[in-house]
Amino acid sequence: MYKRFRKMARKTFQFRLYPNRQQRERLAATLDVCRELYNAGLQERMEAWKCRTPVRVFDQINQLPDIKEIRPDVAGVYSQILQDTLRRLDKTYKAFFGRVKRGQKAASREAIATTASPIHKVDSSWAANCNCPKSATSKSSSIETSRAILKP
What is the CA angle 122-126-132, rounded to 5? Predict the structure, then answer.
């Protein structure tokens, strides 16, 4: 008789890598590019948040070919790795604002687990101090921002 709900065991395998010197250098260079891209993407999102202009993950991913033309070290990294870095940034950014919306303290996991204090209200005068370009939503200004952030 056919069992409708059949449990399957999940197996995972872990492998220890022993890269040689050249592979370690390549892995370190890739990690440096991903770290720099993550920080640049985060800075772009923070600047856009100050101006109340949304930045979607696809907008940032669409900037990657232009950045690769400018930066040869970024061009040396596979595009899927760079896209995944920006998708992880988007996921983290959404999780942060989800915690803020729920009223949790936006800090480390230990601080979130141990404190139940409400988030302090931000002064509403931030818009007056915003140094955002007028066309912050246009693609060309985003690329210029990325060029400035990802200087060689």
Answer: 140
